[in-house]
Amino acid sequence: MSVPSDLLYTKTHEWMRREGDLAVVGITHYAQDQLGEVVYVELPEVGRSAGPGEELGTLESVKAVSEFFAPAGGEVVEVNERLNDEPNLVNDDPFGGGWLVKMRIREESGLLDAAAYDRLVAEESH
Amino acid sequence: MHRWIGAGPEDRKHILSELGVDSMDRLFATIPDEVRVDRLELPGPRDDGSLLAELEQLANGNVTQDEMPSFLGTGVYRHVEPAVVDAVLQRAEFFTSYTPYQPEISQGTLQAIFEYQTIITRLAGLEVANASLYDGVTAMVEAALTAHRVHRGKRNRVVVAETVHPVYRRVLATYTEPLGLEVVVVPAGPDGRLDPERAAAAIDDGTCCLIVQSPNFLGVIEDLAAAAEGAHGKGALAVQVVTEAASLGLLRGGGDHGFDIVCGEAQSFGIPASFGGPHLGFFATSRKYMRQMPGRLVGQTVDTDGRRAFCLTLATREQHIRRTKATSNICSNHGLMLIAATVWLELLGGGGLGELAAACLACSEDLKRRISGLDGGWRLAYPESSTFNEFLLLGPGSGAELRDRLVQEGVLAGVPSRLWGGGWPDGLLVAVTERTTRSDVEALLAALGRVV
């Protein structure tokens, strides 16, 4: 499974990439693989504030619906509108075009680095 | 505790202690005193023969719609009941099955639901319909909750026309009160329609929807285009509720006027009045809101061999998958009633439904015209307003008095307009259908002539 080394991760399988004082958020390759073909993404409203671990929206696949969570506390400043028409980007390009939201981060703690996340996935897949 | 045998005293004690209450009285403490029964004063045991005879005697005290010319409506209508509806309904494949837990096994049921959904979307003028709800009342409440979800729970006001059936509004209050939603009722204007200015004043930025019934409780056809505009101007959803679905054979559904949700009662489609149920709630909306729609949805697809097949779709929104996070707690549908309605509608066809609705309108217009020529204080409450098959008739006395005096004259002439309250004139709501015969009409007019 691909786990890019320049990203931070959560135990709930989100990734986060810092870009200045903003962070891009998505779900990992492992998460999209577990979820299956994503058919609908419910995104939060721009301006929405969330604490670390708070639910931001939902991902609906052909077999399940699951929530995704804020990897760190902050405010949603942009959502990936492309997902309205192309939800499959979450599957096809989870670390790129399939990003979910951009947040202005106010607080973060307990994020995992790539190695730690890799171990978590290895444990979960057993 | 045995699975099939009710709880005994020891079991009850155990259950109560698990629940952390010390008595049954404490357990039921939330039930208000005035509706609680302390002790049932039942007579002693009887044999079934004599009991049935007594029940029959009691029942004979009722007047049924088969015994007198009937003009009763207000949400339940007596339309044609072709024998074929019951014949199809009673086939074991349909009659005995609950919505199966592996639904795709029952392709026949799914196909019937799919056809029903298709018909409802066409009548409503919208893109998606669900596989039905319990009745028109719950369908309307679910529409309000849908609008609330669409606005992510941030708009907590529901604006509803007073001309929406009072019983429907009561159930709306029951559901919305514990959710903290505010219901604002907009009174009718002097023409028996929603007052557009007062509606505009009631709809604010915190309003999730405007609910309008058309034809409304008073029988009057609302200005749907204006209502939709008023709601959308403030970003609220426009919801049409229909309690006489036969009107959709003649009148365009709200979707064609820009409404976001069209819902209501489909009892008129081949389902007997019964005792006020079981009836059939229908619900249609646009594609945009389909994920916030309550209930099941059947889709058409192809199987592995490329043949047409039907499946439940968007089920991931539902309770069995999403648990507490489900879109709504509706996780079933009124399958049997839906099949009755579908058979009825397909038997009539689009043209037939149109003819049926036209017959209702013609009969109503004829009756209104003849009543206008009567002496004795009989008059129409809203002579200038358009109606479909029901209208408010005023006469020499209150609605309840008129009803009783006309029953004495051998006619079930209508439902008192203030039976459930309301700020409109006190008279009789008189409904006709294609089943209203010439002799029914003559009997009513003769009776009206005798009640002065």
Number of strands of chain A: 9
Report the helical percentage of chain A. 10-25%
Total of helices of chain B: 14
Whole-number tally of structural domains of chain A: 1
The multimeric state of the shown protein is: heterodimer
SSE arrangement of chain A, N to C: EEEHEEEEEHHEH
Give the SSE string of chain B. Answer: HHHHHHEHEHEHEHEEEEEHHEEHEEH
Distance between the termini of chain A: 14 Å
Query: Looking across the biggest beta sheet of chain A, what order are the strands in?
Result: 1-2-3-9-8-5
Largest sheet of chain A: 6 strands, antiparallel
Largest interface: A-B, 11 and 7 residues
Q: Regarding CATH, which class of chain A? A: Mainly Beta
State the main characteristics:
heterodimer, A: 126 residues, alpha+beta, OB fold (Dihydrolipoamide Acetyltransferase, E2P), six-stranded antiparallel sheet, globular, B: 452 residues, Aspartate Aminotransferase, domain 2, Aspartate Aminotransferase, domain 1, 2 domains, seven-stranded mixed sheet, four-stranded antiparallel sheet, 14 helices, 37% helix, 13% strand
Describe the fold and architecture.
- The complex is a heterodimer of chains A (126) and B (452).
- Chain A has helices spanning 29-35, 82-85, 89-92, 114-124; strands spanning 8-9, 14-19, 22-27, 38-42, 49-50, 55-61, 65-69, 73-79, 101-107.
- Chain A is of the alpha+beta class and 126 residues long.
- Chain A has a single domain (8-120), classed as OB fold (Dihydrolipoamide Acetyltransferase, E2P).
- A six-stranded antiparallel β-sheet of chain A has the order 1-2-3-9-8-5. In chain A, strands 4-6-7 form a three-stranded antiparallel β-sheet.
- In chain A, strand 1 and strand 2 form a beta hairpin.
- Chain A is globular.
- Chain B is an alpha/beta fold and 452 residues long.
- Chain B has two domains: 83-342, Type I PLP-dependent aspartate aminotransferase-like (Major domain) (Aspartate Aminotransferase, domain 2, 3-Layer(aba) Sandwich), CATH 3.40.640.10; 350-450, Aspartate Aminotransferase, domain 1 (Alpha-Beta Complex).
- In chain B, helix 6 packs parallel to helix 12 (335-372) and helix 7 (136-150) crosses helix 8 (166-179).
- The model of chain B has no long low-confidence stretch (mean pLDDT 94).
